[in-house]
Amino acid sequence: MLQIAILGFGVVGSGTAEVLYENRKQIADYCGDEVNIKYILDLRDFPDHPLGDRVVHDVNVILNDPEVVLVAEMMGGAHPAYDFTRAALEAGKHVVTSNKEVVATFGAELLEIARTHHASYLFEASVGGGIPIIRPMQTDLASNEILSVSGILNGTTNFILTKMKNEGAAFADVLREAQQKGYAEANPTADVEGIDAARKIVILAALAFGVLADPNRISTKGITGITQEHTAVADKLGCAVKLIGHTEKIDGRVLALVSPFLVPAANPISHVDDVYNGILVDANMLGRALFYGAGAGKLPTASAVVADILDVLSHRASERRLPAWRVATAEDMASSEDYVCRRCYLIEGCQRCAAKAKAALGTEDCVFLEGGTFALISRPMSEKDANAALASTGLTPRFCLPVLD
Amino acid sequence: MLQIAILGFGVVGSGTAEVLYENRKQIADYCGDEVNIKYILDLRDFPDHPLGDRVVHDVNVILNDPEVVLVAEMMGGAHPAYDFTRAALEAGKHVVTSNKEVVATFGAELLEIARTHHASYLFEASVGGGIPIIRPMQTDLASNEILSVSGILNGTTNFILTKMKNEGAAFADVLREAQQKGYAEANPTADVEGIDAARKIVILAALAFGVLADPNRISTKGITGITQEHTAVADKLGCAVKLIGHTEKIDGRVLALVSPFLVPAANPISHVDDVYNGILVDANMLGRALFYGAGAGKLPTASAVVADILDVLSHRASERRLPAWRVATAEDMASSEDYVCRRCYLIEGCQRCAAKAKAALGTEDCVFLEGGTFALISRPMSEKDANAALASTGLTPRFCLPVLD
Predict the structure, then answer these.
(1) Can you name the CATH fold of A2-130+298-327?
(2) pLDDT tens across A6-47, in order?
(3) Contacts of residue A113, Cβ cutoff 8 Å, sequence gap at least 6
(4) Contact with chain B for residue A29, Cβ under 8 A
(5) Which residue in B100, B165, B200, B356 is the catalytic one?
(6) Would residue A200 show up in a list of annotated catalytic residues for this protein?
(7) CATH 3.30.70.100 applies to domain B340-402
(8) Which of A15, A109, A351, B118 gives a 20 to 30 Å CA spacing to B268?
């Protein structure tokens, strides 16, 4: 019997118990032994739950029990999740987590502590919910140099943008519907302002480039400013508006940012709709690969947590190779102003204005829209250069969105 | 220094050498030691290649060298690839392969031999080229019961179908272009008749359900009969025609088949175009996940071979858990006639004929086309039942294609 503990018995925590129970036979077969939830740490009691007798309120019961080999942390929030994770690793216990805030903020330190104590620290569920992405990047792509990662990393905002596109609805109305359906939280700030996506792209950047950026310090734009004008322009240009977390290297420095992008139909990520997530990895040998699926939800996320549990328990005899992340310094990071891509501008003006803008942005890619506006897509340029070029024409854009080719 | 041997120095074999060389630093870091290609087995000599001095013509040189811990088999074809694989495993060497024919035909036996000799037998590159799919199914989805797998598994036919759709071109013309571009072989039978896809879906079915079917005995339809009529009907119905390998369980038996399908736009697999592959896995906890990328090509396929090499070499201290496959008996397999799905019929006839067909197929989903025909999509029915229901109306369909929802 392999004894584990669950920290946090909310949506993902109780889902993890459910996955372990539902598929218990194949799980026991995979691990070579039954997996038993010995403790559940939560502030609440669950007297009516079949596992209600496992609930404890003091983490030390778990930390001091040598039978517990693994702790699954699904508390959410930075504290006390970080503190309990650290204590568990220091007690030599393996930890798996779905907590992107802890991984994005303290991942470098926790991986180091895990290494020192010959424990594992795995976090497949922290990005892309149930979608396999962390482990494939570490194993299947181990023979590759990662060139870039671009992802739709937040299901709530993707649901909102998909509805805005398909139904011509306004942001505020769709947000309200998403809240009613339970796809968006009562306080949707972390989702709609891109904060959740920022944590996830920071984790993916660390996997790709070994440097963990501060998620609060990368350029992060959400979707609260996206209107029907954006979606209409996108549609006219054969694109979709998507909230994208993107990371690549620029001259040896790591760029990580979150922004609404125009995504052309030729990019497979443009077809990732509704609450789904999709992560596009560009690698030097493999080329582009897309990982698509349920980016959130009780059972999909729990499925990824349990995959980590099985990975740890089935390899418990051998030492694991954990990634070594360095905390990013200011010098490690590239400025989002230096990010080179095509950029879409919507501008009010006549044919002559359009000719000027086309010349300045080095493009012939321009369409006129109703209401005396035109949209054009620049040649690949940095934000700095593109804005300067446009400013030289005296034209002021109504908006500018980067294009994800 | 970790010594390995390459069997077959064709496209994938030389690509594997290239990946090992290009990314040698991170590969050495990952394995904890440098990886060296000690031997290359090929009938030919490569006097001008930097690794030309490693070429041998007798496999026994490799089998009898105790320094060689791993053999990468990329010869293609059943023999002597199977025989050399077997001999290498019996000599206690790990084997990785891109050879779908050998895995689909002899996989159950070779996995058993590997287990007996404490060796590994990995085959990530045998399905989906560079796309991570085998390892994610075995690790990330280990906590799930697999419900079905549906995939665009052959890049050549997907290129042809995409061209037919986008350019209204005829099958024979596009095939000729694909041959000129090197996307299709001079003898394209294995691709266009679905034989290549059948081998791959048999491997995926074995991973999902533990039973290895004979790829020559599953229902296999290719795309040689697909015309502009099919693509036009698909377009009218908001679908794409795709060659799909599909597996699921029906009443405890394994269904595996290859057929052209209509794929509605809501299914992410419908957007997998050109030479790309996409594999959709439906799992009981995760739900649907799509794995998309380059399904063939020198470096992508080599990237998957090297991922397997790294997996073996970085875990060389510990015994690996290999899947146990059983060779399918007739009783293990479901008949494709029992496969329940929606089915699209194109029928010549008037409004009254359409009313009869709609009633027989339990559907209101019907559109009239030019030339006095109508297309309708049945409710989910088995092929047997759908054909019998339609026959009872006296109507003869011009074609029938299953729908992948």
Answers:
(1) Rossmann fold (3.40.50)
(2) 999 999 999 999 999 999 999 999 999 999 999 999 999 999
(3) A86, A89, A90, A121
(4) no
(5) B200
(6) yes
(7) yes
(8) A15
